[in-house]
């Protein structure tokens, strides 16, 4: 007589009601919250930092942008390494270094040191982002529960992005030229808490144990880093600037070489099988465009409110508070919608809301009542908490398990590229030209709707 044993569930794979699972989930989301908080928190602090450190006008934007460039450049490589070395190991190491580099930024005596510290923070952030969702696959192996967890996890992205300017403005309200340093001292306690909370989590399935594709990783770093640098620099220098053109050319050459290298190597860092999937490519395009919209608007408003509407840093920070509210209320409904209607329909809803909000800004112009702009920002936030969880869920389902972190690295790389593009386009149009910038954002939302419609049809026809 044959005895059939029930399937074993790994110790770290738990149900949603398991207290240990909730603890580990909070630890993972703390890491993600820090990454996104630091992406926007300096937007309202740049004038104060320039005054305190006597920074040159040309160097000041790079105290914020150094973080974005490094994160963009390293995301694909970090995802591939997490698949090879272990996502848990990479995530915990990145939390510790994030805390250390935050202290370095807080103690920076000059702009050069602060820029270097922000770049190092970007290295740690690149390790946290792709590894975090790979760990969620271990924590919630059941697809339906994972979709709900991914919804809450992805909402932390918009919460961090929204809370950054708000908390930055509150800290800057302190009557001290050094108040901006407190922004970085918020990070270490939370990073250490996250490190403690994920204790005991399992390690995801790893990719094939072969030689590391060093050439592929380096080319991805050069390609993404150069593209991000060129896009950001174009905002102030213009698209015809030789440095911008050189950066874009380097990026194109690096990606061309990367394509050739990955086809010939036995163990590609960026497996072609992953990027051959229509669902993956469509999700990456959606991720790029949602960050183009989100970062473009947030960058625009953070400066426009202070320079055109003459709000103080505190008032500017408080302006963003209502936009953070959907991040705590909407995710459970988004997860149910993804499970019931599918990720593609939820994305269509979100990008339609983006388009309507952009149209509202176009109609309002620069001199309407402030509450109209608050409504527009709230609509953007509602759109983001539809699109981001849906896109993240799509990648987590479409990417093979052994390439989970690589898929997430690609997702975040696309989002970072979109962020840089949004800032570049808004800067090129001019932050004082609210209608023109909003029109550029409207075009992005329309492109996303076209992409999802045709990408969804292509994947269904296979």
From TrEMBL:
Domain Major facilitator superfamily (MFS) profile: where? 24-462
Q: Which SUPFAM superfamilies does UniProt cross-reference here?
A: MFS general substrate transporter
Topology relative to the membrane:
Multi-pass membrane protein
Compartments, as annotated in UniProt: Cell membrane
Q: Which branch of life, at top level?
A: Bacteria
> Which Pfam families is this protein grouped with?
MFS_1
Q: Where would you find the membrane-spanning parts of this chain?
A: 25-46, 66-83, 90-109, 115-140, 152-174, 180-202, 214-232, 244-261, 282-305, 317-334, 346-364, 370-391, 412-431, 437-456
What's a single GO MF annotation on this record? transmembrane transporter activity
Query: PROSITE patterns recorded for this chain?
Result: MFS (PS50850)
Record bears the keyword Heme: no
Q: Name the principal localization, coarsely classed.
A: membrane
Q: Which GO terms describe its cellular component?
A: plasma membrane
Report the Gene3D superfamilies cross-referenced here. Answer: MFS general substrate transporter like domains, Multidrug resistance protein D
Enumerate the UniProt keywords alphabetically: Membrane, Transmembrane, Transmembrane helix, Transport
Q: What is this protein called?
A: MFS transporter
Q: Which organism is it from?
A: Actinospica acidithermotolerans
């Amino acid at each position: 007589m044959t005895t059939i044993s029930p399937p074993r569930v790994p110790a770290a794979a738990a149900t949603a009601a398991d207290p240990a699972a909730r603890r580990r989930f909070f630890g993972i989301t703390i890491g993600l919250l820090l990454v996104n908080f630091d992406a926007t928190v300096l937007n309202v602090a740049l004038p104060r930092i320039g005054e305190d450190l006597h920074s040159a006008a040309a160097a000041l934007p790079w105290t914020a942008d150094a973080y974005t460039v490094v994160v963009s450049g390293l995301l694909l490589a970090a995802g591939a390494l997490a698949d090879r070395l272990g996502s848990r190991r990479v995530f915990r190491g990145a939390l510790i270094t994030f805390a250390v580099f935050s202290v370095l930024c807080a103690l920076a005596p000059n702009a050069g040191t602060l820029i270097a510290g922000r770049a190092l923070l970007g290295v740690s952030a690149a390790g946290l982002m792709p590894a975090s969702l790979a760990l969620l696959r271990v924590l919630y192996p059941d697809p339906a529960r994972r979709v709900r967890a991914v919804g809450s996890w992805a909402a932390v992205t918009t919460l961090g992005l929204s809370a950054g300017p708000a908390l930055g403005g509150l800290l800057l309200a302190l009557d001290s030229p050094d108040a901006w340093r407190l922004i970085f001292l918020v990070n270490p306690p939370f990073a250490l808490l996250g490190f403690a909370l994920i204790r005991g989590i399992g390690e995801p399935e790893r990719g094939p144990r072969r030689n590391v594709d060093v050439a592929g990783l380096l080319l991805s770093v050069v390609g993404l880093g150069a593209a991000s640098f060129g896009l950001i620099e174009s905002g102030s220098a213009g698209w015809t600037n030789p440095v911008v053109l050189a950066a874009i050319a380097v990026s194109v050459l690096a990606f061309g070489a990367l394509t050739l290298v990955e086809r010939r190597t036995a163990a590609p860092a960026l497996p072609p099988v992953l990027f051959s999937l229509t669902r993956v490519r469509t999700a990456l395009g959606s991720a790029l465009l949602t960050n183009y919209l989100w970062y473009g608007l947030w960058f625009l408003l953070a400066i426009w409110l202070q320079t055109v509407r003459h709000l103080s840093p505190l008032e500017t920070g408080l302006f963003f508070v209502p936009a953070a509210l959907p991040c705590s209320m909407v995710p459970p409904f988004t997860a149910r919608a993804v499970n019931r209607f599918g990720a593609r329909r939820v994305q269509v809803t979100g990008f339609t809301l983006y388009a309507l909000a952009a149209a509202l800004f176009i109609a309002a112009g620069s001199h309407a009542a402030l509450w109209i702009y608050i409504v527009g920002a709230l609509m953007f936030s509602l759109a983001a908490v539809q699109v981001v969880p849906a896109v993240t869920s799509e990648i987590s389902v479409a990417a093979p398990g052994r390439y989970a972190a690589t898929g997430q690295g690609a997702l975040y790389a696309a989002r970072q590229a979109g962020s840089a593009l949004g800032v570049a386009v808004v800067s090129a149009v001019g932050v004082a030209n609210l209608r023109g910038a909003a029109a550029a954002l409207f075009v992005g939302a329309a492109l996303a709707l076209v992409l999802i419609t045709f990408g969804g049809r292509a994947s269904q026809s296979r």
